[in-house]
Amino acid sequence: MKKILISLFTFLLSISSCSKEDDFSSLPLWSPTDHGYELVWEDNFDSTAIDRTKWDYRSVGSTRGMAVVDTSTIYLDGEGHLVIEFSEKDGTFYVGQLTTQNKQLFKYGYFECNVMLNKQPGMYPAFWLQSPKIGGGEDPSIYGAEIDIFEYKVIDSNSIYNTVWWNYGDNIKGKQNKTLIPQINVGFHKFGLEWTPEEYVFYVDNKEIWRTTSGVSQIEQYIILSTEYKEWGGGGANPQTLPDKVFFDYVKVYSRNYFYE
């Protein structure tokens, strides 16, 4: 999701141990409320319009990869879902981004969305946290990080990616995880992140799939829901089969009181 060239020497790839179909199904369940977390922010998308007290459109009109960001791709379907489309018109492809930037920042906690993923190659959706200071310096504890709670691409249809990026620029650093999860492209699934001062822990359907101490932000960050169209997602979208859609059922944020000032 960046326009920055990534140095292979600073990008570290970590493959999750959940590489067999039986592994994910046997993982224990985890609940934020069982670990001292309380719900502090949510949107269930039950209204007739996007709640502009919680969300802003992001990067409108900009070209990201192979598509233009446009507000027409984002709407509520009247059935309790936020929809972000990948569409095409007159040879131009369109994607969408929604953010809590300038509305609500968060520091630490548990972040979760419930999502039905897209069906066609090309587009890839994401649920992520971004720092308002990223790119200002090298130290993620001061300048924050990009935390991709999940990314998904149809060309790798049984896998979920989690990535942490920091130190935007020529020496960008990152660490990525890929987990095989059978049937992740069927129905709704929960994607979660527990962010503490010490580490990030990533979850799918309340099961831990990866944890890392790399690039841990110690500053407030904002939420982004997005679609992208780039070569990483497979490219080659067929306009005749569009629009493709991703459905967000809810977004929730939980906190432990001692994390918040």
- Count helical runs: 2
Helix/strand structural class: mainly beta
The CATH topology is what? Jelly Rolls
Summarize the amount of helix as a percent range: under 10%
Radius of gyration using CA atoms only? 17 Å
Oligomer description:
single chain
Overall CATH class = Mainly Beta
Low-confidence stretches: 1-10
Q: Supply the number of structural domains.
A: 1
Order of helices and strands: EHEEEEEEEEEEHEEEEEEEE
Keywords:
Jelly Rolls; eleven-stranded mixed sheet; 3% helix; 261 residues; globular; 43% strand; eight-stranded mixed sheet; mainly beta; 2 helices; 19 strands; single chain
Descriptive overview:
The protein has 261 residues and is mainly β. The chain has a single domain (11-259), classed as Jelly Rolls (Sandwich), CATH 2.60.120.200. The protein is 3% helix and 43% strand. It has helices at residues 21-25, 140-143; strands at 11-15, 38-43, 56-57, 63-64, 67-69, 74-76, 82-89, 92-95, 97-99, 109-116, 123-130, 146-151, 159-166, 173-180, 188-195, 200-204, 207-212, 222-229, 244-255. A hairpin with a 4-residue loop joins strand 15 (188-195) and strand 16 (200-204). The longest helix has 5 residues, at 21-25. The two termini are 31 Å apart. The model is unreliable at 1-10 (pLDDT under 50).
Task: Explain the layout of strands and helices.
Layout: E1 11-15, H1 21-25, E2 38-43, E3 56-57, E4 63-64, E5 67-69, E6 74-76, E7 82-89, E8 92-95, E9 97-99, E10 109-116, E11 123-130, H2 140-143, E12 146-151, E13 159-166, E14 173-180, E15 188-195, E16 200-204, E17 207-212, E18 222-229, E19 244-255
Parallel strand pairs: 1-14, 5-8
Antiparallel strand pairs: 2-19, 3-9, 4-5, 6-7, 7-8, 7-19, 9-18, 10-15, 10-19, 11-12, 11-18, 12-13, 13-14, 15-16, 16-17
